[in-house]
Specification:
Phosphatidylinositol 3-kinase, Chain A; Wheat Germ Agglutinin (Isolectin 2), domain 1; 2 domains; 5 strands; mainly alpha
Length: 267
């Protein structure tokens, strides 16, 4: 089912004879299976073809579940790949997550990863690890709902409004367990990662520093459309929530992702 001949912009192999179709040459592409071939090879083309499955890019923005895989643990591949790359070569970097990466590169790589969907390109070619950190933070900030936003405001309340620490811990664990599965699994994966960062003496990023960086990124505001004053008042509360989450033991977080941790590491 060929379309009218088109000009090749990028050299690609002919689907029939296998030799390269050079730049600027005329070619034919099947509009059903996307097979590209020389015009001279059209007669040798198989008469039947099967449509190729369309590759779906991720949305530019969405709730976390829009990016999560279909089987547990429900942690988006983008989050897994960024975290894996940071842990491979970033745990000796001072100011990890606090030092900004070049803004243009962060935007470019985030766009590239979202366009790629689950078939992510390797991040090993990103020279500056702070750019990878920036992509992760920007992805989390760009979600339609903050990671801890559902059930709305319950998590911040459990973290900041209960004076008794034991009761607060119990309430916090309960609210985390009731988050949507993708949010809960991703939060657990991130908390385990941030705990590892906090334990690295080279990073100089303790729980307090990390909670200041990730508070506004992970925790929602007290109202849907906060005023500048409300944003300013929310910031200390957001930081306290993340600090409280990081005070929960790693065994709690591993309960959500630990048994299947090996499934999270990209091959």
């Amino acid at each position: 089912d060929p379309v009218p001949p088109l000009q090749v912009i990028r050299p690609e192999p002919c689907g029939v004879c296998g030799s390269r179709i050079r730049f600027g040459k005329t070619a034919i592409k099947c509009c059903q299976c996307q097979l590209l071939l020389h015009t001279k090879c059209q007669e040798q083309c198989p008469s039947l073809c099967a449509p190729r499955p369309h590759h779906h890019a991720w949305p530019r923005e969405g709730v976390l579940a829009d990016f999560a895989p279909s089987t547990p643990p429900l942690v988006p591949a983008l989050v897994v790949q960024c975290v894996t790359e940071v842990e491979m070569r970033g745990l000796t970097e001072t100011g990890l997550y606090r030092v900004p990466g070049m803004e243009q590169l962060v935007r470019e790589w985030k766009r590239k990863l979202l366009r790629a969907g689950a078939a992510l390109p390797a991040l090993s070619s990103v020279t500056d690890i702070h750019v990878v950190c920036g992509v992760l933070k920007d992805f989390l900030r760009g979600l339609k709902e903050p990671l801890t936003a559902s059930p709305l405001t319950l998590l911040p309340g459990a973290a900041t409004d209960i004076p008794d620490e034991t009761a607060s811990d119990t309430a916090l664990r309960h609210v985390v367990s009731k988050l949507p599965p993708a949010n809960r699994d991703t939060l657990a994966f991130l908390m385990l990662h941030l705990l590892r960062v906090s334990h690295s003496p080279d990073c100089k990023m303790d729980v307090l520093n990390l909670s200041r960086v990730f508070g506004p990124t992970l925790v929602g505001h007290s109202s849907a459309n906060p005023t500048p004053l409300a944003i300013m008042e929310d910031t200390p509360r957001q930081c306290k929530v993340v600090a409280r989450l990081l005070s929960l033991p790693p065994s709690f977080w591993r309960g959500f992702v630990g048994t299947e941790q090996e499934n999270l590491v990209p091959v």
